Amino acid sequence: MSRHHLLLLPSPDSTSTARRGGGGGNNALPTPSRQIERLNPALSRLELAIDNRRLELRDSAQGVEPEYTLVLETIGTVAEFYNAAKRIPGLEWLGEYEIRNIQPDDDFYDSSNRDKPLNGQVMMMLSDRRAIDQLLSLWRRYGDDENMRFPSGLAKCKHLFRQLKDIRLWGVQDRLEHTGILEDWRFRLEDAADDEVIRFEAELWFRNDLNVRAQTEARLRELVGNLGGHFVSSCCIEGIRYHSALLELPIEQIHLILDDRSIELVKCDNVMLFRPLGQMTIEPLWDDTEEDYDSDSIPHDDDINEFEEVALAPDSRPVVALFDGLPVTNHRALLSRLIVDDPDDFESNYPVTNRVHGTAMASLICNGDLAVGGNVIATPLYVRPIFKPNSLLNLETIPDSVLPLDLIHRAVRRLFEGEGDEPAVAPTVKVINLSVGDPTVHFTSSISPFARLLDWLSHRYNVLFIVSAGNHAQDISVPGMTARDFRQLPDDHKARETIKAVQADTWNRKMLSPAESINSITVGAINSDSSVVPVAQMGGKYDIYLGEEMPAFYSAHGIGYGRSMKPDILVEGGRMLLNEPIASNAVLRPLNYKAIPGHKVPAPNDSGDLSYSVHIRGTSNSAALTSRACAQLWEVMVEIFNSNDKLNELNRYGAQLLKALTVHGASWGAMFERLSGYLELSDTRKLKLAMSQMLGYGKPDFDRAMYCLDNRATVLGYGALEHDEAHLFKLPIPEGLGGVDTWRRLTVTLAWMAKPCSEYIKYRDSALWFTVEGENELTSRPKSAYDWQMVRKGTLQHEVFEGENLVVLAQEDRTIHIKVSCKSDAMDIEEPVKYGLAITLEVADGTTVNLYQEVQQGIELQVQQRARTQVQV
């Protein structure tokens, strides 16, 4: 069947917005008298804690006016309470985030289902004693008279009091627990010399006032200096309300803090969290020291025997940037492919034998899996080293000499603005590959500073980040089963029990920061690659899914912020074998080694062989292959827009269109049937949630997004919208489809970059969504379709409609009307929101109608009619 170019739709018509739909739950709340009874003890503890802290500061920090971070937890949300907070003198709004899966009790529960988990809100405010006294005064008056009239602007306080679950001060436990800092300190102390120092991060509460921020840093310098330490550096990024310091303390002071939490540094009210440094990485799922490595049973293919060197065009500019480790630039697979930009001179302390991860990722982006032999991308790859060898962890990590967010911020700004007197180094970049994750920060409810940074940078510079979801290659415990019982199961039952065990362990397999970024495409892994694994010859080892495509058990799970789709897509990440369980309980242990299965990539070795290769696996691979597809899709779009004399518009809307096209070919496909069979969930809602957690939008077929066929037409639209505006696109329908009884599918993907609003629970400045006019009445969503509410929660809406009756969606002018609507969300929209739209209509093979040709002719007719109308006007 003939291949054809993608098509461009004419500029859309302006119209009114569509209804968003959705709605909140119906929570039962305690009576006011019960709330007084419940919360008075907590308020008494709050007042006692404030009094004690005032006494401590009076003795240790004369002249310091005490400020306290107040934490309020509600059931349900108290919409826009920050407006009320601003009216209370001495209260400074710090932020809010959602919490999910709160267990109901006798006081708070869903009126329609008492067992249903609840959602809530955490609000944080910085307060002096005067503001707290005013809040407590309002509370007592409310307790005396629940019908009291609240002062002007403070009516929201009544909703707060009704829904308040808990109130307390932010304390030492919040700063140290669940951040990874305590575990990191204990690990480092095991082999540390007495004269060593340890570096770590202190994330500070962001203050709006520049002078207050300076005072905060001065206070921190004093506290660290009192302990014989150093305030190394700081970073403040106002766009994401981030303020942090890199601190250094002697070993003996770390010992002291671990033994005594009354040290003033960890009690400092200016500090939100203490975090470890030098751990941000993507742990490679291969290891030469693997105990069960068996060179006789596992085949090797260590050399790149043939590699075609294709010269790049002399004027080609990078489209994709890789932020990763330093690659082996003179490896045969990478010769003349890379532009390495190393302004921090990481290379001087980066032995060639340690240049593993960056070499692998660069090759996957440029070449794909070397075992497959795909085409080299047409543009050079820009590489910025952000990792260095970490001898303590035996990994490549972001070094502890720099704050990670400061490094990433400077690296992106250098691309598009330059640094110092140097101009922008790679302003043509449209995609940044970031296969990095923080193993100490799993996404649960609040968006991490790293993810907020990516969201802000993508919006500011109109660039698309491709981010790996993260790896979890810990042992898999199959509940309620012995090792012997598991070994005796049929192969398909082994797969079923494994996937159920992984799903049950979702809490420990969450995405790693910054994978929750809403503007980025987050990529998980499918257990797939091109290698042939002779499992029958490898006794005691399982290719657990029998070669079928399934979400890789090592791939981190979603859901995203606000119950959005995350990861966005799953891409081939390479298979990982499991050791069969031997004794006691059924515990499956993943096998790490550099032999097959996996993707074939170049690698350094001790002998300096520049044709050496290994096989690897992981979500890093998946992200790199996605970035490779982006480079190829960009070339497709350049050709289309150039032929239509619209390259300027591509430069403006290219990132949004690229984001839409990258996901446009995604579907759950056969993985849905396999997973639903394994999980055995009869409840459709629970099944869709499980599918969304593990699959996102599914596996993308990148090739489908690059060209059309006689029976398949893909069209692109784009535009920019302000609050309460909408655009209407009209997709022509071939007249011949009206009387044809045949299968047809309509796929629509909408993408944009929202400005992050870090201090608000809604987070996005803008909410965009598309509607296919008439869809609610005339198209049904089968069990295998995405949740219609979930797909509208992020910045990427992707839906598929299929069947034999889609033609009824056509309007009287024989077009399908697709409306893109825009509303402000967390805040007022400051500038029009750019979006990209991809639409594909296809019919079954063998249909006599040349769908592509007729859609193309219909678009040409629209352009002609519009031109005539403009002339008449």
UniProtKB/TrEMBL annotation:
Q: Name one GO molecular function term.
A: serine-type endopeptidase activity
| Origin: domain of life | Bacteria
- GO biological process terms held by the UniProt record: proteolysis
Concerning Pfam families, the annotation shows: Peptidase_S8 (PF00082)
Residue intervals of the Peptidase S8/S53 domain: 345-698
Write out the ranges of the annotated region (Disordered): 1-35
What InterPro entries does this protein map onto? Answer: Peptidase_S8/S53_dom, Peptidase_S8/S53_dom_sf, Y4bN_pept_dom
- Protein's name in the database: S8 family peptidase
Q: Which organism is it from?
A: Neptunomonas phycophila
